[in-house]
Amino acid sequence: MQDYQAPAELLKNRIILVTGAGDGIGRAAAKTFAAYGATVLLVGRTIKKLEAVYDEIEAAGHPQPAICPINLEGATSKDYDDLANTIQQEFGRLDGLLHNAGQLGTLTPIEQYDTETWNKLLQVNLTAPFLMTQALIPLLRESGDASVIFTSSSVGRKARAYWGAYAVSKFGTEGLMQVLADELDDEHNNIRVNSINPGATRTNMRAHAYPAENPIHNPTPEQIMPVYLYLMGSDSQGVTGQMFDAQKKQP
Ligand code: NAP
């Protein structure tokens, strides 16, 4: 899917929510989806960053996005219900949901791993996507052709020492993706559910995880967008429960 070439109007009239839309991969995804015609709902915790993305999308002449400030660390079911009600009132449906926001925590042996950091990572990376998805499923059903994408990691498929709660949260994310995909895999729902491992990508998170690495060797978020477009658009209809790698050629 690295080679996927999206048609210019792939996402025309689609309503797509992106979490962590203010920075890194989420920022690139929000701008890319808008460039292919989507109305993008920008979810994140730093309003200034979301406003900057909003302004860039507007300046480029793409469909007007919307800003939905949510801190995934403290958000409750009620916050997600309020989000769903707002989307229901404004659009009546949701066509795409990209769970992208995430935190790294610390690279620490399990023996010394701090409980507070553990709980925060599980909350932001795993429980928040669960709660948000649960609240938004009725709206995704209204789409008739909806796509949910979870964001994984290579350590969410094969763990490595010191990656602690981050790795465990990404294994949980793959599990959530598979359970949900199986539950929704019928014609009545028309909701496909997949995960993407972005691979090493030039963002702040990567720089924190690998401070000694020269970032120039990693692709930019914009360069890994083909698989995101493929899964958000109608070319992936019927594809569900699959794990994708943004930087590998799919067989
Ligand atoms: P990033 O540059 O650090 O961006 C993370 C985004 O998540 C930011 O917009 C951040 O908002 C948001 N976020 C963090 N905590 C949040 C919270 N409590 N509530 C709401 N939003 C929150 O990271 P990235 O590299 O783009 O990562 C995006 C996704 O790809 C993550 O799920 C990550 O695990 C995954 N991933 C990345 C790589 C890589 O090499 N970059 C590799 C594998 C997987 P603020 O800017 O406001 O903090």
Give the structure's gist in a few sentences.
The chain has 251 residues and is of the alpha/beta class. The chain has helices at residues 24-35, 47-59, 77-90, 115-141, 164-183, 204-209, 225-232, and strands at 15-19, 39-44, 66-69, 96-99, 146-151, 191-197, 243-245.
Describe it for me?
- The chain has 251 residues and is of the alpha/beta class.
- It has a single domain (15-114, 124-245), classed as Rossmann fold (3-Layer(aba) Sandwich).
- Helices cover 40% and strands 14% of the residues.
- The chain has seven helices and seven strands; from the N terminus they run βαβαβαβαβαβααβ.
- The chain has helices spanning 24-35, 47-59, 77-90, 115-141, 164-183, 204-209, 225-232, and strands at 15-19, 39-44, 66-69, 96-99, 146-151, 191-197, 243-245.
- A seven-stranded parallel beta sheet has the order 3-2-1-4-5-6-7, sandwiched between helices.
- The longest helix is centred in the middle third of the chain and has 27 residues, at 115-141.
- It is globular and about 50 Å long.
- The protein binds NADP nicotinamide-adenine-dinucleotide phosphate (NAP).
- NADP nicotinamide-adenine-dinucleotide phosphate binds at residues 20, 22-26, 44-46, 49, 71-73, 100-103, 124, 151, 153, 198, 200-201, 203-206.
